[in-house]
Amino acid sequence: AGTVRFEDVRFAYNPERPILRGVSFEVPAGRTVAIVGPSGAGKSTLSRLLFRFYEPQAGRITIDGQDIAAVRQDSLRAAIGMVPQDTVLFNDTIGYNIRYGRWDASEAEVREAARLAQIDRFIESLPEGYETPVGERGLKLSGGEKQRVAIARTILKSPPILVLDEATSALDSFTEREIQAALDRVSRDRTTLVIAHRLSTVVNADEILVLDQGRIVERGDHPTLLTQG
Ligand code: ADP
Ligand code: ADP
């Protein structure tokens, strides 16, 4: 389960300036589709529509054939896991941050998710800027480490659909490779929509869509798009 379809989706924040000008694609259940395109192309807007933060002005978005316009936003949030580019952490331990939304998870499950995301050494730590009542201070996590907290949270939540915001441009290449490996583990066998700036980061996608100025201007697999330049 978990096939996502965009059918001729049109959207504008402001009627004079269309952002999505008729976008159609399908992410078959369990597959990975990447949306690549320059800044401002409408990639984040696509994912906001999938969460129903906004409604399309035309066209529709379905999950397993059901129009999401008829699905409550909290159900969508339960069905779709998001690994954002910038993760904001709550004022509590990294372990709590991983458990967030899965309060029934056992300690062992939280540890296993943290281990898979390679963030287990920080599980008892607090994030930077926070302090316990007895004056213990938080730890400064790098962008990559924060993203791994979000990955661990997603592993624990185990949603059928994933949205990965892979614009990891702020990370060094070693961290980027590590994050990539963790993301590949989470997305295996799950319906996954990857949002990326660069073709080089989406080698494992089954299909890549190039979005530019609100339209899909190219689609294909990684080798095909690379040879086309
Ligand atoms: P991308 O993720 O590809 O960089 P976005 O979907 O964030 O693109 O943005 C697409 C366009 O929509 C941009 O021109 C951006 O300025 C505009 N935009 C994004 N969010 C809003 C908003 N809340 N209100 C008005 N315009 C917006
Ligand atoms: P991202 O999703 O990449 O983290 P944002 O969604 O905050 O970034 O914004 C994406 C782009 O949309 C940025 O260029 C931002 O300036 C623009 N944008 C965001 N909100 C608005 C808005 N309310 N009006 C106009 N442009 C906006």
TrEMBL record:
Compartment(s) of residence: Cell membrane
Domain ABC transporter stretches: 4-229
Family of the protein in this entry: Belongs to the ABC transporter superfamily.
Protein name: ATP-binding cassette, subfamily B
Shown stretch of the complete protein: 357 to 585 of 626
